[in-house]
Specification:
The chain is α/β, with parallel strands linked by helices. 37% of the residues lie in helices and 24% in strands. The strands form 2 sheets. It has a 6-stranded mixed β-sheet with strand order 6-7-8-3-9-10. Strands 2-1-4-5 form a 4-stranded antiparallel β-sheet, with helices on one face. Strand 1 (2-11) and strand 2 form a beta hairpin. Helix 3 (95-106) runs parallel beside helix 5.
Length: 247
C-alpha cells in the first residue's frame, strides 16, 4: 500500500530524514518508534502529503505522492484519514459536527446521510448518543481521542495515519484507545501507520514495528522480532523507554 524510498528532508540545513526506506504492508498496522526528535511525525506528514521531501519517493499503490499535483494529489489524499496529535478538534463545533465536518466539506452527500454516517462512527468508538451535542472543552482527553478517531473513519479511508494517538492519557485510557484502534482496524480493514514513543504498550496494536534512528529505519519486524533484535541501538532504546516510565 505504502512504500517510502530514499526519503530525505532537512529544515534550515539540519537533516531530519536521511534516506528513509519503509514498506507498509496492505491491511496491517505498522508502528514507527524512535526517540523524541527522531523525525517520526515529520515522516508521517510526508506520507500524508502535508510536507514535500528534498529527495525520494512515497508510492501509494504505485503512484508517487511526491510528484502528484492538483486533482491527482487530491484523489490520493481522499484515501487517507488522519488522527492528529492532540486530536485537533474544532472548539466551536460539537462532537457530532466535528465528525461530520469532512463529509460536509468534501462530499455532496445529503445531510441525512452525513448525520447517519457520523453517528455510526461515534458508536463504533463507543461514544454514547448524549455525547454528540457536547463541545470539545466539555469532554475528557480520552473522549477527544475517540472523537478524532471517529472523524478519521467517517470517509471510510483505505489508509489511517496516527500521530502519537495516546499522548497525554493515563494508562487505563491509553489501553482503551489502543483497543479501539484494534477494534476499528478489524471492522474496517484499513492500512494503519502509527508513530509513537509509548513503549511497549503500542506493541499491542502493531503487526509490524519500524525503528527510526538518525534519520533512517534501522530495524523492521514483528513486535516479538523487534524485542529480540540484538542491535544495541534497538535494545538501548527499548530499555531506556521502559526505564523512563514510557508505557
Amino acid at each position: 500500500m505504502i512504500r517510502v524510498l530514499e526519503l530525505f528532508r532537512s529544515f534550515n540545513g539540519v537533516p531530519v530524514l536521511q534516506g528513509v526506506n519503509l514498506e507498509v504492508p496492505t491491511g496491517k498496522i505498522t508502528v514507527v518508534i524512535g526517540k523524541s526528535g527522531a523525525g517520526k511525525s515529520v515522516l508521517l506528514k510526508h506520507v500524508a502529503g502535508l510536507l514535500r521531501p528534498d529527495q525520494g519517493q512515497i508510492l501509494i499503490n504505485g503512484t508517487d505522492l511526491t510528484r502528484a499535483r492538483g486533482r491527482e494529489l487530491q484523489l490520493i489524499k481522499k484515501r487517507f484519514g488522519v488522527v492528529f496529535q492532540g486530536s485537533a478538534l474544532f472548539d466551536s463545533l460539537t462532537v457530532l459536527e466535528n465528525v461530520a465536518f469532512p463529509l460536509r466539506e468534501k462530499t455532496r452527500l445529503p445531510e441525512r446521510e452525513i448525520l447517519k454516517r457520523s453517528r455510526e462512527c461515534l458508536a463504533q468508538v463507543n461514544l454514547p448518543p448524549e455525547a454528540e451535542d457536547k463541545y470539545p472543552d466539555e469532554i475528557s482527553g480520552g473522549m477527544k481521542k475517540r472523537v478524532a478517531l471517529a472523524r478519521a473513519l467517517v470517509q471510510e479511508p483505505e489508509i489511517l495515519l496516527f500521530d502519537e494517538p495516546v499522548t497525554g492519557l493515563d494508562p487505563p485510557m491509553m489501553n482503551t484507545v489502543f483497543h479501539l484502534i484494534i477494534k476499528t482496524h478489524r471492522e474496517n480493514g484499513y492500512t494503519g501507520l502509527v508513530v509513537s514513543h509509548d513503549i511497549p504498550a503500542v506493541f499491542q496494536i502493531a503487526d509490524y514495528v519500524a525503528m527510526l534512528h538518525q534519520g533512517r529505519i534501522v530495524a523492521f519486524g514483528t513486535p516479538a522480532e523487534i524485542q529480540r533484535n540484538p542491535d544495541p541501538v534497538v535494545q538501548g532504546f527499548l530499555r531506556g523507554a521502559i526505564d523512563f516510565g514510557e508505557t
